[in-house]
Design goal:
single chain, alpha+beta, Arc Repressor Mutant, subunit A, six-stranded antiparallel beta sheet, 10 helices, 18% strand, elongated, GAF-like_dom_sf, IclR family transcriptional regulator, Tscrpt_reg_IclR_N, WH-like_DNA-bd_sf
């Protein structure tokens, strides 16, 4: 009985510690102890004990001047280990750098995770480098180039379920928010082998995305090239950019074990 109680307490502590880590976000990268208590419905004394332990282990840092907590260096170490474990990232990175060098556009790799696209790699355009990383961020599927690729080549039942559960929020006046309209576009994605996103997630930006396939032919991720409307210039460069991108994704697919011979994209 005592062993069961101890195991329960340990499980509870682990759950609460993970809950603390989950409280951090791009919008709230730093939090006070009372913020964790409110978010997790815990007492401040419980939160304080957990935070003290997590600071000691390096998973959380405390700013002694402000009293705010932020994620610690151990999280970065674990993130690096996780990223290095993805074979698709290893094989895609050289191609992303080559796309940026050749086109002067940003290049991205993302996979499907929990009904959203999840960035595994990003190479900034040297013309407009970001002050933050895209790696580890998530975006919706219905209004992003890679998201449309992942939906288009997913099992139809799974794609419909994702759209139903995640919804189709409008981000700009160009965002597609009607499922039937999106399904028609996804059919075009399958026919031509790439997807376009034109100011559907953010005004002034566009992207083209294409699928990466694994050994069995199943789509396991997507690559996109993106940039300002003036740089993408889709009305003039769509054919050129999509052809270069598809060549790159075909090379990555082959590195992932997919045999493209005899495969018709159209």
């Amino acid at each position: 009985m005592k062993q069961e109680q101890t195991a329960t307490m340990l499980t509870q502590s682990v759950t609460r510690a993970l809950g603390i880590l989950s409280c951090f976000s791009d919008e709230q990268p730093e939090l006070r102890g009372i913020d964790f208590a409110k978010k997790l419905n815990l007492t401040q004394s419980n939160v304080s004990r957990l935070l003290t332990t997590m600071v000691t282990l390096g998973y959380v840092e405390k700013d002694e001047l402000t009293g705010f907590y932020r994620l610690g260096p151990e999280i970065i170490s674990l993130g690096g280990i996780a990223l290095n474990h993805y074979e698709i990232r290893k094989q895609a990175l050289p191609e992303l750098h080559e796309l940026e060098r050749k086109l002067g556009l940003g290049a991205n790799l993302a996979i499907l995770n929990g009904g959203q696209m999840f960035y595994l790699a990003h190479v900034d355009s040297h013309k407009s480098p970001r002050m933050f990383t895209m790696i580890g961020r998530r975006n919706p599927l219905h209004c992003t180039g890679i998201g449309k690729v992942l939906l288009a080549f997913a099992d139809p039942g799974k794609a419909a379920q994702i759209l139903e559960e995640e919804g189709m929020k409008g981000y700009t006046e160009k965002t597609i928010t009607v499922q039937d309209e999106l399904l028609l576009q996804l059919d075009q994605v399958r026919k031509r082998g790439y997807a376009i996103e034109n100011e559907e997630l953010a005004l002034g930006r566009a992207c083209i995305a294409a699928p990466v396939r694994g050994r069995s032919g199943q789509v396991i991720g997507g690559i996109s090239i993106s940039g300002p409307l003036s740089e993408m210039d889709l009305s003039r460069r769509e054919a050129e950019l999509s052809a270069i991108l598809i060549e790159a994704t075909d090379r990555i697919s082959m590195k992932m074990g997919y045999i493209t011979a005899g495969y018709s994209r159209f």
